[in-house]
Amino acid sequence: MNIGKWIKGIFKQRSGRMAGVIAGVALTVSLLSSIGSFVAYSGATMTARTVRDNPTDWQVQLVPGTDVQKVQDAIAKTTAYTALEKVGYADVQGFQAETGGTIQTTGAGKVLGISTAFEKKFPGQIRGLVGASDGVLVAQQTAANLHVVPGDTVSIMRTGLSPVTVKVDGVVDLPNADSLFQGIGLPSNAAPQAPPDNILLMPEQQWHELFDGQATVRPDSVRMQLHVRIDRSLPADPNAAYIYVQRLANNLEAKISGSGIVGDNIAAKLSTVREDALYAKVLFLFLGLPGAILAALLVIFITGSGREHRKKGQALLRMYGASSAQIIRIQSVEGIIAGLGGSILGIGISIAVNNLTIPNGMSTASLTPAWTVFSALVGLVLATAAVLYPVWRDLRGRPALTFKNTRIYSKPVWQQIYLDLILLAVSAFEFWRTASTGYQVVLAPEGVAAISVNYEAFIAPFCLWAGGVLFALRIFDAVLRKGKNAVSGIIRPIAKRLSVIVSASLSREKRFVTGGIVLVALAVSFAVSTSIFNTTYNMQAGVDAELTNGSDVTVTGIVPFENGDSRIGKVKSLPGTSGIQLMQHRFAYVGNDLQDIYGIDPGHIGDATTISDAYFGNHNAAQTLKTLENYRDGVLVSEETVRDFQLQMGDTINLRLQDARDHQYHIVPFRFVGIVREFPTAPKDSFLVANAGYIAEKTGNSASEIMLVRTSGNPAELAAEVAKALGTADVRVSDIGSAQKLINSSLTSVDLHGLTSIELAFAVLLLAGSVGLVLALGLAERKRNFAILKTVGANGKQIDAFIWSEVLIMFFGGSISGILLGTGIAQMLVKVLTGVFDPPPEFLAVPWGYLALLAVAAVLSAVIASYMVKSISKRPVVEELRNL
Amino acid sequence: MSAEYYMDKPDCFIKVENAVRTYNQGGIRVEALKSASCRVLPHDRIAVVGPSGSGKSSLLHIMGGLDKPTTGSVSWPLLGGPESLRPGRLGFVSQTRSLVSSLNVLENIALPLLLLDHDYEEAKNTAEDLLRIMGLMDIANKQPDELSGGQLQRAAVARALSTRPKVILADEPTGQLDHTTADHLLGVLFEHIRDTDTALVIATHDRDVARRMDKKWKMQYGILEVEAV
Ligand SMILES: Nc1ncnc2c1ncn2[C@@H]1O[C@H](COP(=O)(O)OP(=O)(O)OP(=O)(O)O)[C@@H](O)[C@H]1O
Ligand SMILES: [Mg+2]
Fold it and tell me: Among the three residues A208, A229, A250, which one is the final residue of a domain in this structure?
């Protein structure tokens, strides 16, 4: 047997089918390897971003009396560090200050001794707010507690020594206080230590002068730490990077054993990031895999069609005396050629796609060899199996030229055991179970290197997907089998008098028609669920960023905005500004607890920022704001505060606010009217929201610290405009985009844009491909029937009735099932991934524009396919009639 | 008698003049029909005989308007243009399996009437009558791929009769039938057109079939030899 001739024959005779198989394999392979690249790329981005934003990697706490140089040498041997600074920590009994004739005293606090280089070497640890950025610096809340400003004096009540007085040079913010003051060496199951309320920083030398004495008297109250920025050439994958830095820290601890303990900030950060990365991986797989499966099904569909052709080829081979094994071997050549061609094409596509979607430099690195090889292998196996399976089935079946089929209808096994309904029930049950107990998709036990995905969470959407498709299959199968009258009713407008036999014909082609419906349904559901999920995800990432930033553009006044402040007018008149709201940000004592309090105009706050239902205890933003507006003295408090103070709706709650006239905190009665969980710019812990007018009246201060600006255009551009108009001396301007980059703790920070556009493009291709292929192949399969119809005397319109009825049933049957299924899956995915969203979305965002594009693509390919078939059926009928 | 004699007769169903049909098969020119001139008149009973590959099917396709002659002409003076032949005025029985595979036998037979926009019930009744006459009632609801070759041929003939056409062109309708069944089929055919002016043209290898026809046309190497009886 001449293989070369056979291959030539394949390409000549079956070029269309071969091209279809190659295209399908290419789609599968490129989808898989694109997902792979994206998993790798997003992981690498997450690692890089975490490392970049982490100010201090290690805080090595030294045992008193340790030789610092020795430890420093050990660190140098462990990692080629890029920054290392000594920091002194001293516990003090409190601080005291006298302002405006009164004396304020705080509780216990800490005094840090830092070198002048500290701020530069660890950028981000100290953020200057008012006054100088070196010298004696007071933390913001401490300054508020003591009512001090630069120039005032504060006395430090040292432990075991007499108080000393220092002059305040500046007020600062310590954004990383949590890690800066972490309890190093505590057992891993201990509750995290809250940072001290009162903090003062001073130059190293001064600190030694004041606290070396304390160290002698009370050695337990003074500690030295080495703050280190390690060599940051880490593995790109977050989990690998985590394991790497953890080993590094263990290594150091072993070297310096007994003289110090490592506070591993970088490992702690990477630990959360690896969870997010795993979330991302799971998400990408879940979003992308159905597409890959669909592409694979398409390949199988293509190879499964053309049975007549294949049979002829086999009969020919048998004539030459080929055995079954030889036929299989010859046919596998066809599979391998298609597999190789498809894989090469697919990898080429994904390289091109990566170059387009992944920012410069990362693209080649992110096409990981393992994923590429894996997806190519999948392509090869898919093509070979898809080509060989029908051949093998034919060969195993009845001798070559029998056409007799048993017509006794037997239900497929899955229908007999009600697999579809079982899957749907499992889906509903799993959904109910996991939804009622709350979701934990990624499991990361504290202190354990391995993290795992709770794949059970995906049982519900997967079962919905599989069960839904099978259920649609069952329904359409039953409709075509038993509901001929209904079908003929549906197609009557197209088929007219022929509707009865057209529907009869459809019923006989049931296997094929339902197969087509399922493929179309799968393609539509893939496109719909992916696009809805992605849009919702993007919307939610926006909400998340807005929650953090406050609004599109947020202006924080170091000098607050007074009523009629000229700066308000300046911002208002900028062309990009579409809404503007002032918001007070003060502090109030709830009992002994100092909380942030926000003064708003409830009726208009929505003009400048999104107030989501999820922010409030009653899940109703409109109603809560309305209530607040109705009660001038109303206040919204956190759940924790409600619990701590046993509050009932309408209770009076006495807060202490600072009065502008005497700078003292005075009691102001408020009325508890609701629970607030989150609010734009508010911290994650407890805070309060009240009417700005009431706060202004009671404190004699109507100024607002925050200006929220909404734009109809580009937030970054407006932020730049605002900064230009107001100058940067006494305001800070931030935009939502930069906030988005800062959000590091949640998955919504992962930029899905690249993947989204790939998936959406694939979805269009798959949908157009499925619709087109299913119709074209299926109808071509029956071109003989169309030829016969012509010899009997059917005119063009009548043949159209057959073609279009089938198109109509497959297209609409598939589309409707697909839309239902896709929406359901998107809904479920959003629910399953609730943990990803902060706050969770209130509704699914439907990308109408994209869906319209999809519809156009699908209709277009259906029309093209039908015309292709029509052009086939236009060929002289004699040719067709001569072929048996 | 010469072909020209026939040409002079007016008012025929089919008129073929100097038809030539050549195929191009892989660069080689195959002359399926070298020269054919003939006419089919009302009441004609014509057998087209000749060895396999002589061009019988090619001629019938041209006469049925399913194919066009490469040179020469074909026309249907009493029937109208090629578009108005089927379904209705001309019934064609093809040599190969020619039932629509997704329709059952009954639907296949009713098909021409449905294409003529007849009511479904009416078409079904006509089809049932024909099946009864053909003795095919028991396979009415079967699919074509469940039938034997002979059953398929008889069903195809029944379909050609369903519209009571003016001309029936049947290409080897008895090729797969035993003598008795073939005889019966012909009987039905003749019976069906008995009191009409319908013309019947059958291409056949079967001498018995040919003998029962009034005229015999001989086909040899693509050349048609028309003889009057
Ligand atoms: N599409 C085609 N391409 C090439 N050659 C063809 C084609 N159709 C028919 N022929 C050739 O034309 C010649 C006449 O064929 P035709 O089918 O008309 O013969 P026939 O008399 O009907 O034969 P049979 O009795 O076997 O049915 C044959 O040699 C055949 O091979
Ligand atoms: Mg023939």
Answer: A229
